[in-house]
Design a protein that fits this description.
About 45% of the residues lie in helices and about 5% in strands. By secondary structure, it is mainly alpha-helical. It has two domains: about 150 residues, no CATH class; about 100 residues, no CATH class. The radius of gyration is 21 Å and the shape is globular.
Length: about 270
């Protein structure tokens, strides 16, 4: 999460408020209301299985597409289009926007709100005017946001070589965060010590053996010999490395790729 807490998690507040506007079941009408930036009250006994059931009731996300009702199809499309996430990641992000937010608020910011969406206009639904009129709005507490940023935001003052490898279709840590990280390294005076690489992968947790071995080898050469790599040289190195595996594990580096700005995916605030 190279954008740090104050940038990487904003979209999950967006997800909570848009989900509630569309589905109205987290919390349900018969549960005590609470500000969604809390994630979940400490007194709640909600489980992940119960939340998944609620999400499924609204969107049918765990069903095959043909088994979803017309309303579920519309709800799911609205959520994934507005928040710009694939349906496969909906339940996971809702979990983080629930229990992770609870952890942040009650264990890190002393119950204060580090997230806001007061100025955000949501787009991509069948009726954006109606959606924006319905979503709940929150203002971040400046002291909470500052404390959260001090704890979690990179400053770009890194005195050693830094090499990143990121799947362009990562559904958890958006590739656009790399654009923000580069800006951070520039501001911190460390741009010359950063090389970013990107792969045509759809996973967050693991890419391929050859890609990691190629990247680590390039980083070691940079550290030990002063040979700064490029995205092209790492892609070529991967082809050589992958030939040692039987069968090959795949080289999907995209040296030409440049990540769009984070604001192209997550509205600024």
């Amino acid at each position: 999460m190279l954008g740090g807490g104050t940038q990487s998690y904003n979209f999950r507040l967006d997800l909570r408020v848009v989900y509630q506007a569309v589905c109205a079941n987290h919390p349900t009408p018969d549960e005590p209301p609470y500000p969604l930036w809390q994630g979940l009250p400490l007194s709640s006994s909600l489980t992940r299985a119960e939340l998944a059931t609620r999400i499924d009731a609204c969107t049918g996300v765990r069903k095959k597409a043909a088994e979803r009702s017309a309303v579920q199809q519309l709800n799911l499309k609205a959520l994934t289009d507005v928040i710009a996430i694939p349906e496969s990641s909906l339940v996971g992000h809702m979990n983080w926007a629930t229990w992770h937010f609870q952890d942040i608020v009650f264990k890190r910011t002393n119950g204060r709100n580090p997230f806001g969406n007061a100025t955000v206009r949501y787009r991509g639904s069948p009726d954006d005017e109606a959606l924006n009129a319905k979503v709940l709005r929150y203002h971040a507490d400046p002291t909470a946001r500052a404390a959260f940023g001090e704890d979690t935001d990179p400053q770009g003052r890194i005195p050693v070589p830094v090499l990143t490898v990121h799947g362009v279709d990562d559904t958890v840590a958006f590739v656009e965060l790399e654009s923000h990280f580069r800006d951070t390294m520039v501001r911190g005076g460390s741009a010359q010590r950063l090389v970013q690489t990107f792969t045509q992968d759809h996973e967050h947790s693991y890419l391929s053996d050859a890609q990691y071995v190629a990247a680590i080898g390039a980083l070691l050469n940079w550290v030990e010999r002063g040979e700064k790599p490029s995205a092209d040289s790492i892609a070529a190195r991967c082809q050589t490395v992958d030939a040692r595996f039987d069968p090959g594990t795949g080289c999907r580096f995209r040296p030409e790729f440049t990540p769009p700005p984070l604001s192209s995916r997550v509205p600024e605030r």
